[in-house]
Write a structure and sequence with these properties.
Rossmann fold; Transcription Regulator spoIIAA; transferase; cytoplasm; Archaeosine Trna-guanine Transglycosylase, Chain: A, domain 4; 421 residues; alpha/beta; six-stranded mixed beta sheet; globular; methyltransferase activity
Length: 421
C-alpha cells in the first residue's frame, strides 16, 4: 500500500495556501474545501502524501474523493510504510499508555480509538479475551487485513467480531455487516466495569455492545448515593428513614448506571428504557450484582415517563439522563437541543431541593458549549439554580487529539439543583 498502482510515487494532495493551519496543530482530517488539487490517480481508500501549497510534506494518510472529509492522517513521517508493523506499533503504543492511565482497559474497555491512535476509521473495544472492531471508512477497509493481523499479534484474543453495521459506513460506500473475522466469538459475554459484572450482547447491543466511554463517569456518581437522611433535612425536606438516594435512571440501556448507583448505596432505583430487550438485560445485570431487591423497571419512552412523573408530583434525590445521540447531523442540532432541554427541564422539576441532576450528551454535533447552554435554558424555565459538581468527558481510554475539538463528543455533567422560588 506504500506505492501507487502504476508503480510511481504516492498521489499527492496539495493544500490551499489560504487554509487554516489545522493540520499543523494535529488535526487528523483534511476537508474537501482545503484541497487545492490532486496530483495523480485517486480512488476511495488510496494512500496519499499531503503537502502544502509550496510542496512541503506535511503528512501521509488515505483519501476518499467521495467524502467531505477528503483525507485522514496516518503518520507525519515522510515515506513511512503503512503495513502490519505500522499497525502493530500503533497498538503497542496504545497499550503502553493505557497501562498507566486506565488499567481496566488492559482487559476491558477501548483498545483502539481511531484518529487518536493514528489509525483513523478503526475502533476496537476489548471484552476480556474477545475484541469487537468497527471499520468506519473506505481507507481503513482497505487497510483492515493488516490491522487484523496486528490486533491478533498484540492483543492475542480468542476471537474478533466486526460490528460493521453502523450507518456511517454507507456514507463511505461500504456494506453493513456483522461477522466474526477471527477465532470464535460468543453472542453474550461478561465484562467487569469498576468491579461490577455486566452481561453484554456483542451482536445486537448498541455500538460495540457496551458504553466504555462512561466508565469513569459511572464511578463518579458514588458520592451522590448516600448521606440523604442529613441532606434532606438540610434542605428543608422530611429526612425519611433511609440514608440512600432515590434515583430515576432514564435511558438506562442495560443498567450500567443503575447497577453502579445501587452498588454505591442508593436506596432504590427506577430504571427506564424504551427497549424491552435492553431492560431484560438490565434485569439480569441487577440480579447478577445482587441489587435486584432495590430496583424496578419501566419499558417506556423516557420523554413520556418524565412528563408523567412531573404531572403526578414525583420526587427523586438523583435523576440520571444518558440518552442516545439526539443530533445525527449538524442540521439537526436545533431539534436535538429542544429534546435535551425538555428532558433536563422535566428532570429538574422532579428533583428534591438540593438534589442532583446527572446529564450527558453523546451527540458529536452538539458542542459542549451548546449543551451547557441548553441545560441552563432548561434551568431558567424550571426556576432552578444549578451548581456544577462535575464537568467531564469520555473516559481516559478515549484520548483526544488536542487540535481536534470535534473529538470531544461526550459531555457529562453533574449539577446540584436549587430552587429560585
Amino acid at each position: 500500500m506504500t506505492e501507487r498502482r502504476d508503480g510511481l510515487l504516492p498521489t499527492r494532495l496539495v493544500l490551499r495556501r489560504d487554509r487554516r493551519r489545522r493540520l499543523e496543530q494535529g488535526h487528523p482530517w483534511i476537508y474537501r474545501s482545503e484541497v487545492e488539487r490532486v496530483e495523480g490517480p485517486l480512488a476511495p481508500g488510496d494512500l496519499v502524501d499531503i503537502v502544502n501549497h509550496q510542496g512541503v510534506f506535511l503528512a501521509r494518510g488515505y483519501a476518499n474523493p467521495q467524502s467531505q472529509i477528503f483525507a485522514r492522517v496516518l503518520t507525519y513521517r515522510q515515506g513511512e510504510p503503512i503495513d502490519v508493523d505500522f499497525s502493530s506499533g500503533a497498538f503497542n503504543r496504545r497499550w503502553s499508555t493505557a497501562a498507566g492511565f486506565h488499567p481496566q482497559a488492559l482487559s476491558y474497555g477501548r483498545a483502539v480509538y481511531g484518529e487518536a491512535d493514528f489509525v483513523p476509521g478503526l475502533v476496537v473495544d476489548r471484552f476480556g479475551e474477545v475484541l469487537v472492531a468497527q471499520v468506519l471508512t473506505a481507507g481503513m477497509e482497505r487497510l483492515f487485513a493488516q490491522a487484523l493481523e496486528a490486533l491478533v499479534e498484540v492483543y492475542k484474543p480468542v476471537g474478533i467480531l466486526a460490528r460493521n453495521d453502523v450507518s456511517v459506513r454507507a456514507l463511505e460506500g461500504l456494506p453493513l455487516v456483522v461477522e466474526t473475522v477471527y477465532g470464535e466469538v460468543p453472542d453474550v459475554v461478561d465484562v467487569i466495569d469498576n468491579g461490577l459484572t455486566f452481561a453484554v450482547d456483542l451482536r445486537e447491543g448498541q455500538k460495540t455492545g457496551y458504553f466504555w466511554d462512561q466508565s469513569e463517569n459511572r464511578a463518579a456518581i458514588r458520592p451522590l448515593m448516600t448521606g440523604w437522611t442529613a441532606r434532606r433535612a438540610l434542605f428543608g425536606e422530611a429526612p425519611g428513614h433511609v440514608d440512600g438516594a432515590h434515583v430515576l435512571d432514564c435511558f438506562c440501556h442495560t443498567g450500567a448506571f443503575a447497577v453502579h448507583a445501587l452498588h454505591y448505596g442508593a436506596a432504590h432505583v427506577t430504571a427506564v428504557d424504551i427497549s424491552a430487550d435492553a431492560v431484560e438485560l438490565a434485569r439480569h445485570n441487577a440480579q447478577r450484582n445482587g441489587v435486584w431487591d432495590r430496583i424496578d423497571f419501566a419499558v417506556a419512552n423516557a420523554f413520556d415517563y418524565l412528563r408523567e412523573q412531573d404531572a403526578r408530583g414525583a420526587r427523586y434525590d438523583v435523576v440520571i439522563l444518558d440518552p442516545p445521540a439526539f443530533a445525527k447531523s449538524r442540521h439537526s442540532v436545533d431539534s436535538a437541543a429542544r429534546g435535551y432541554k425538555e428532558i433536563n427541564l422535566r428532570a429538574m422539576r422532579i428533583l428534591r431541593e438540593g438534589g442532583f441532576l446527572v446529564t450527558a450528551s453523546c451527540s458529536y454535533h452538539m458542542s459542549p458549549e451548546r449543551f451547557r447552554e441548553t441545560v441552563l435554558e432548561a434551568a431558567v424555565d424550571a426556576h432552578k439554580v444549578l451548581r456544577v459538581v462535575r464537568d467531564a468527558r469520555a473516559a481516559s481510554d478515549h484520548p483526544q487529539i488536542a487540535g481536534a475539538p470535534e473529538q470531544h463528543y461526550l459531555k457529562f455533567l453533574i449539577y446540584e439543583v436549587r430552587s429560585r422560588r
